[in-house]
Amino acid sequence: MTTADPSLRARPRILTGDTPTHTGLHLGHYVGSLENRLRLQDEYDCYFLIANVHAFTTLAEKPAEIRANTIGIVKDWLAVGLDPDRSTFVLQSEIPAIAELTFLFAMLIPFNKVMRNPTLKTEIETKGLGETYPFGFPMYAVGQCADILAFRPELVPVGEDQEAHIEMCRDVALKFNQLYCGVGNRVPAEEHAKVGGVFPIPKAKVGRIARLAGLDGVNKMSKSLGNAIFLYDDAKTVQKKINKITVLPDPATKLVPQDHALLQYCDAFLPRERAEAIRAEYASGKDVMHGHIKAELGEAINALIEPMRQRRAKLDGPEGDQRVIEVISTGIRKANVAAEETLAMAKRAMGLHFGERRIG
Length: 360
Known about the structure:
Layout: H1 6-9, E1 13-18, H2 27-40, E2 45-50, H3 56-59, H4 63-80, E3 88-91, H5 96-106, H6 111-115, H7 118-126, H8 136-149, E4 155-158, H9 163-180, E5 203-206, H10 235-243, H11 261-269, H12 272-284, H13 290-313, H14 318-350
Parallel strand pairs: 1-2, 2-3, 4-5
């Protein structure tokens, strides 16, 4: 088995990604993770994962939609500026080591701990799944651990809502290293790989905006909740969506709350001094012209995403789809080298290694 490129492995590694439950990405993804990915491409050995298998936890009856969404997300990555020549694009379904590691890791996590995962519980509630979700839905929390640890990263850029998943991942890595690699339980997490642990203990890296509210002002910005501004929305659509944001004062204080979605957007997309001035106006109880603020925000957001829209438009049609397939194919080959290396190390530590195998 060929090992990963040593020149890349000399750099610290990052793994993060997106689930293709919608045809594209939104502003919450941008400020929560994509910005970080762009900055880190030259400093880290970056792996960006499309979790298309996880999408089946809620869209199992719509495989064609998942495929289209997968292509759409890669187009958004390219439009934002993620570079497949500097980073590795990973298609989850084509990396068999992830599935094997998911099964092995499932033996290390108590079921009740999985079900207490706050992110999992929130998704069940916000998506109205009740008791109808498949067994695979909680299983994806274990699968996320495999998604990450298959590539042995040091950092995982995520939004605030994903920190619980990273904590579970850290627990799995710690337990594996202690149980199968002889790492003492008093060894600091950052020392595990140095003393023989298969897995580095990854850390979450939260974006500059940990949680961007959706247009409804209640939930986080989400594809599935219909409260998002997408990176491919045209200028009129962006402004129209912002104009629909309801701005109502708190009945008790008569002031617009400082955590209101509109003010969050000011923090995220306007210069700091301007955002602070707007917050001060609202805090003073002045009669603020909400329409003027919304127009200013719309202009700033459109200026941000216009280059992305233009690059995304060039990827529309069959030629763009073919470009995406080529990028995915290249990434699959590189990702399988790294993941197979990890799996072999893990199986050797567990006494399950009985020979080499090669996956292209």
